[in-house]
Structure formats: structure tokens, C-alpha cells
Amino acid sequence: MGALHRRIAVAVAVAGVVIGGSLAAAGDDVVPQAVPEADCGPGSRPETTDLQGRVPQADYDSGRVLAGYTCNTEAAGRHGTTGGFKALRYTDAQGHTCAFYDSTRILGMDVVGNLLNGTGLGVVVLDMTNPALPRKTANLITPAMLSPHESLLVNEERGLLVGVMGTLATAPGILDVYDVRSDCRKPKLLSTTLSGVLGHESGFAPDGQTFWTAGAAGFTMTAVDLTDPRRPRVLHVETGVVAHGLRFSDDGNTMYVANMGTPSSHSILDEPSLHIYDVSQVQARVTKPRISLLSEIDWPGISIPQVAEPFHRDGRDYVLEVDEFTDWFGDGWTVDFKNSPVGGARIIDVTDPNSPSLVSDIRLEVHQAVNRTPELLKDPGNALPIGGYSAHYCSVPRRDAPNLAACSMVGSGLRIFDISDVENPREVAYFNKPAKGGASALSQPAWDPAGGSIWYTDGTSGFHVVRLTNGVEDLLD
């Protein structure tokens, strides 16, 4: 119980937090397993090795990599040559459908190339009337949109596109709010303020009234009132949590926080987990609100929690949680390339927010420590310590009983899983389009159910429209 006592001691020291619930700790002897491989149908160009998710050096040497890798998918549209952390889809009041994506992974990267190739800077706005031919209609280059890092979100209820200035660590929380309901092709700036406090990741209450910024290395979570989006107002600043993505229950009263861990003498980010908070006082606009930590849960092989997307099935509540990257310092300060944790993704039952439980893992064979050979670690797709054969973002097409989940798994591209049986997820499709230096699929995927497709960005090959084929598209119904 030593770890739990340390967590409670830290949390008690944080002003405004009420402690409740418990820590659900995973057994160290449990090894998470890869899901079954997809059965690739006609028209597919499958991976060339028997290791799920791998793109070997031999494919670069032979030129095979240039054709890409598809399994029950096909390329249906493309724009640009770069991309960041979000691909978003929205249909406005006039029936126009748009895509929004951040054009770079890190502020300062890709500037010259994006200016020369026509992508431009900041957040790119695409008219998706014809998904096969995405048409750029705007670049959003206000301060937050130039560097939203992982914070860019659109709220369906109110038609607000919001981002906060962020970096790999944190940044002054300049918050930009745009109206996209009127005409998503030409977003209208409503406000630029310092109300975000610090920026890195974010969250949006489903009703669109409250936007939360996660300051990550700034140790803050900030609730911003957007009742009047022209005049954002800080409601509450929580300190002491190295927070990543923030997601919410349907009523906005429960917040699922990807807790990256706390710096310590043992590790850069020690004891990461998923935190579950009661934020009903913020949602109800109580004066001087308090938020309550209900519970937290960790799991075997945890790396760096990124975000936990809520969904429902058969009367129960779940989150699809994904870890980012490989935690090179997961077990101390000594780097161990072979055995450092690759978190992948998982389904967690949060029906009782005071007692969450792990249901199943979603990961590829290439993530498994047993397969991380010296040869594999040299693959171009595994070259970067912040990426490689790991995961970054996952999403579902809807909250109510989704059958599919899509995950950007960096060097392994876009991977699609059947999650209709939450205890036994399986891979059903993939799409990977590496560039010369390897794939860098990092973005939260967006869904176009009517078109049977998924939109995502790769940092080295741009915005992609990926059509599902061979019956996988039927699982969108």
C-alpha cells in the first residue's frame, strides 16, 4: 500500500481536492497481450512481415514502403504533407461539412515546407463537400491556433472550435474560441484571452459551456466558462496534477483525467494512472467550487496516459484509454530500449466511478517486449523515442454502443478495432502510409459514418481520408 499512501499524501496537499474512492492497482505479473490480427480481404496491400504492426527496413530498401499498407481500407482523399495531433469533423447549420487539423507536431517544425506546399500554418480548415478532393478554405493563425499542441477540440452542441496555446511541456494559456456553426468553412474568431492559464491538452464538457485546459508540466487543470464565448471566464484552477487529456460523462459531472504521473527521484513521471473526478460543482457553477478525486486505476505495462474516451454498451459505462509513446524511464532513470513500457490502449469499466476495473487491452504484436529485438528497434518506423511502434490517440464514432475504435499508432499507422465485444477486441483493418523517414500517425481520428470512412493525419504524409472496405464499413451502423 506504499504507493497508495504516497498518492493520497500528494492529493491531500492539493488545495480544493476532496479525496474519496480507491486505487485499483494492476498486478505486475500480468502481461497484456496483443489482439488478434485482421483478416485482410480483396484489394488489400497487407504488411509484409508476420509481426502485426511492423514496417521493416527491408521494405524501405526495396521501395515497397512507398505503396503503403492497407487491410480492408483504401485511400479516398488526401491533403498536405504534414499533420499534428487532431483531425476533427463538424457539420454546420447550413449543412457544410468541414475538417480541422493542426498542421505540425511541434511549433517551428514544417514551417518552410508548409508555406511552400500550400498547406500554410496553424490550424487548416478543409471543405469536405467532396471527401475525395478536400479543399482548403482557411488557415487559423491566431496565437493558440499556431500552437494548439494537443488541445484542439470542436463542440458539436454549440459549434465552437477551441484551442489553447501549448507545447511539449506547457505554455501560457492563450485561449482562442471560434464560431463554426454559422459557416464551418470560414470560422469566426470570437475571443483570444489568457483564460486558459497554461496549455498542453484539454477537454470540453458535452454541453459546450465549460472548456478545460490541462497545463501538463505546469501542474494545472483550468475550467473556463464559455457561456458567453466572447468573454471566457476562469471558474476554477486545480493544481498538483500532471494532466493530459480530460474527458467527461454525458452530464459533464464526471471527469476522466489521463494522469501522466508525478516527477520524483525515481522517475521523470512516476506512478501514472487514470484519475476519475467529481466536477459537478464546477458544472453547476457553485461559487468557489471544489472537485473530488473519486478513484484512480493503473494497469500492467502503463506508459504515459494520453486520453480516455467515454462510451456506453449494454447499460454499462466504459472509457477507451490510450497511452502515448514508449516510457523510456518507466522503471527508473536508466533507459532500457527493449523492456521500456509500450502502453497501447485498453477498455476500462467506469460504471461505478468509485471502483473502475480493467476489461481488456488493445495492442499490437509489435508493442510486445518479447518482440522488441535489436533489429526491430532499428526500423525507420521506430526511430524516434517519442514515437515509433507505440500509440498516441484513439477515438470511437459515437458514444452509444460503438462497434469500432480507431487508433493512431505512430509507426504502425491507423489501426481499426472491433470493440463490440468489450472483453475481446480484435483488429479488423489498418492503413499505413509511411514517408521516407517512417510513419508518424499521431492524430485523434475523426469519423464519417455516412461515407464509411475515417479521417486522420500523419506527421510526415498529411491529412488522409481512409475508406473502410470488405464489410468493415458495415460495423459503423
In short:
The protein has 477 residues and is mainly beta.
Structural write-up:
The protein is mainly beta and 477 residues long. It has a single domain, classed as YVTN repeat-like/Quinoprotein amine dehydrogenase (Methylamine Dehydrogenase, Chain H, 7 Propeller). 8% of the residues lie in helices and 38% in strands. The protein is built from 6 helices and 31 strands. The chain has helices spanning 2-12, 57-62, 111-117, 143-146, 280-283, 374-377; strands spanning 17-19, 23-24, 69-71, 73-79, 87-91, 97-102, 123-127, 135-140, 153-155, 160-164, 171-179, 188-199, 201-204, 210-214, 220-225, 233-239, 243-248, 254-259, 273-278, 291-297, 304-313, 316-324, 345-349, 357-362, 393-395, 404-408, 414-418, 426-432, 446-448, 453-458, 462-468. Strands 1, 2, 17, 18, 19 and 20 form a 6-stranded mixed sheet that branches. It has a 5-stranded antiparallel sheet with strand order 3-28-27-26-25, with no helix packed on it. It has a 4-stranded antiparallel sheet with strand order 4-31-30-29, with no helix packed on it. β14 (210-214) and β15 (220-225) form a beta hairpin. The radius of gyration is 21 Å and the shape is globular. The termini are far apart. 54% of the residues are buried.
Keywords:
477 residues; 6-stranded mixed β-sheet; Methylamine Dehydrogenase, Chain H; 6 helices; mainly beta; 5-stranded antiparallel β-sheet
Tally the beta strands: 31
- Give the CATH H-level superfamily: YVTN repeat-like/Quinoprotein amine dehydrogenase
- The CATH C-level name is Mainly Beta
The biggest beta sheet reads:
6 strands, mixed
- Look up the CATH topology: Methylamine Dehydrogenase, Chain H
Number of domains: 1
In round numbers, the mean pLDDT is 91
The proportion of residues in beta strands is: 35-45%
By CATH, the architecture is named 7 Propeller
Whole-angstrom Rg: 21 Å
Number of helices: 6
Helix content: under 10%
Q: What structural class do you assign from the helix and strand content?
A: mainly beta
Rough outline: globular
